[in-house]
Amino acid sequence: AVGGGDELRHVEDMADLPSGAGKSSRVKGVILGESLASEEDDLVFPSRDFSQQALVSSLQQYQEMYKRSIDDPAGFWSEIASEFHWKKKWDSEVYSENIDVSKGTVMIEWFKGATTNVCYNAVDRNIEAGNGGKIAMYWEGNEPGQDGQLTYAQLLDKVCQLANYLKHVGVSKGDAVVIYLPMLMELPIAMLACARIGAIHSVVFAGFSAESLAQRIIDCKPKVVITCNAVRRGAKPIFLKEIVDNALVECSKNGVSVGLCLTYENQLAMTRKDTKWQDGRDVWWQDVVPNFPTTCEVEWVDAEDPLFLLYTSGSTGKPKGVLHTTGGYMIYTATTFKYAFDYKPSDIYWCTADCGWITGHSYVTYGPLLNGATVVVFEGAPNYPDSGRCWDIVDKYKVTIFYTAPTLIRSLMRDGNEYVTRYSRKSLRILGSVGEPINPSAWRWFFNVVGDSQCPISDTWWQTETGGFMITPLPGAWPQKPGSATFPFFGVQPVIVDEKGKEIEGECSGYLCIKKSWPGAFRTLYGDHDRYETTYFKPFPGYYFTGDGCSRDKDGYHWLTGRVDDVINVSGHRIGTAEIESALVSHPLCAEAAVVGVEHEVKGQGIYAFVTLVEGVPYSEELRKSLVLAVRNQIGAFAAPDKIHWAPGLPKTRSGKIMRRILRKIASKQLNELGDTSTLADPSVVDQLIALSDC
Ligand code: WT7
């Protein structure tokens, strides 16, 4: 009943690529109305002043650097790597790889044999360069007026104290630590402390439910879970520690016990005395960590030792533990950050992502700090107390680079320009977008209104798996086209293939794959190298398969068109349809469920669930709510279905496979495009579904 099983099957069953070019789909959900025909001819040039001061000033300069990165990856990347600190240099080979499954096990290694430490490079190295007094992080709390800051020297002290504590309680190199924290400075501090001692952090987004947290803890078996008692999101308190308590009960039922729950007392949200406590297991961060020394020796690790695990959604119900290693990830996040945001030491950088997602790993924590940047860490909600909050923060900290997701842009756009124009925003010089295709009207609003038509937009396409940007503008180097991620980053060779895996040249659309490895690539799925090969390297042998559709226009610009597998992207948050289905069928009255993504004005994609109830159970509003609640409880609020569509039956082939193509068409009300339904075991279910469309 539940979707899932072998992920490979989804390659045959991929969502149909829009015919002709994906461009018709990228402008779906148009808000202001716009002419589509001219879209790809619409060039937005950086100003001459901007280009002149940029790290890469022209297309030609990019082309020369890009060519070198492809012709001589070893030379290109080792030159960049030499700017970082290595305790010991790499072996003679800078990298080695096999991404062709037909030639044996897939493996990717960069800088093998070298030893280094990411925390050392992100913190100590900046202090040694004389920047100990520079602000590493500004922290802005949920309520305006709650704030804090840390210089690089202060950050190092905090990181070392926690690192010492973790060592003291027995965490050592290679051990996992799960971090379940909101956007307090303690979150990046905890990540860096793990990196310092060679422990593998696995941050779980604090919007995930107890069940999802438990699932991740059971998979990676951490020695310690780090959390806080509570957090306020907007006006509402969320009791994170209770969620952890529940998760740990679930874990012990599954034979995984965690001996220590280090809990930060977030006094702004909740006091200690109200927090439920388990003596022996729970320890207040503030009671222990500050007692440890502010210096802590670095654990030098191999470039290929794991840095972190981050769980992400795939086509099946079980989240995948994406594993990133040390050396390549470090060099890649640092370099992509530097070029895609044309980073200058005077910049104040703010990325609105949460560290619970890859964007917060690579572009709140590692990429910026490795460049010695000043980062704004924001704990609150972008529309609290009102929709002007982001621009208030931009003015307060004089933010120069602002990086966010299309979903936020669209929702602020809907709230009206007054919230933006009320603030100066004159510090801004570069804007960034990530997480899903940005529709041209949102792009234009971001450019015209937020950036006063002065700031280039870096629309960065990448994935949890890629570690860093893959296709992205270099803001001073070439004109942008609203909605296009433009060209590949150095060392990245994107190709578009057809269903048979044949590369297509020139103007075309198809499946996006990558040829060859790049330093930031993930190395495996934790504990499941088979699934790594099956999901990413078997669909199109010889390539890494991204799961995305893409078209390339006559000028070579890339236009991402969204996922072509059973993964949906809701407000830039990735979730597998099978995970939602499995949460729905866990409800005692749900017999079967099928979930598809459907266009959503603000979220990009909304979650549309077809639900078949147990025989004889009547439809009701109450039941609808309890089904939605089941998903919130099992996964998290962000995965709650936008629509439950009652389904007496689901359209299946004679072999029992659900035809999602038909469900997608019904969900998006494209009833005249249902296609051939004659292969269905019972074609009449389609009419029943249509009849129930508005119930
Ligand atoms: C999927 C990866 C990587 C950061 C956050 C999401 C979609 C991401 C873009 C973009 C079009 C984008 C893709 C991709 N995506 N950025 N600029 N334009 N699509 O990471 O959760 O691993 O999701 O997000 O579909 O495959 P993720």
UniProtKB/TrEMBL annotation:
Keyword Ligase in annotation: yes
Domain Acetyl-coenzyme A synthetase N-terminal stretches: 62-122
Catalysed transformations (reactions): (E)-4-coumarate + ATP + CoA = (E)-4-coumaroyl-CoA + AMP + diphosphate; (E)-4-coumaroyl-AMP + CoA = (E)-4-coumaroyl-CoA + AMP + H(+); (E)-4-coumarate + ATP + H(+) = (E)-4-coumaroyl-AMP + diphosphate
Record keywords: ATP-binding, Ligase, Nucleotide-binding
Residue span, AMP-dependent synthetase/ligase domain: 130-517
Gene Ontology molecular function: any one: acetate-CoA ligase activity
CDD domains: ACS (cd05966)
GO-annotated biological processes: acetyl-CoA biosynthetic process from acetate; phenylpropanoid metabolic process
Domain of life where this protein originates: Eukaryota
InterPro entries, per the entry: Ac_CoA_lig, ACAS_N, AMP-bd_C, AMP-bd_C_sf, AMP-binding_CS, AMP-dep_synth/lig_dom, ANL_N_sf
Domain AMP-binding enzyme C-terminal, chain residue ranges per copy: 579-657
Pfam hit, one: ACAS_N
NCBIfam families (UniProt xref): Ac_CoA_lig_AcsA, PRK00174.1
Family: Belongs to the ATP-dependent AMP-binding enzyme family.
Name of the protein: Acetyl-coenzyme A synthetase, chloroplastic/glyoxysomal
Origin species: Ananas comosus
Source taxonomy: Eukaryota, Viridiplantae, Streptophyta, Embryophyta, Tracheophyta
Gene name per UniProt: LOC109722979
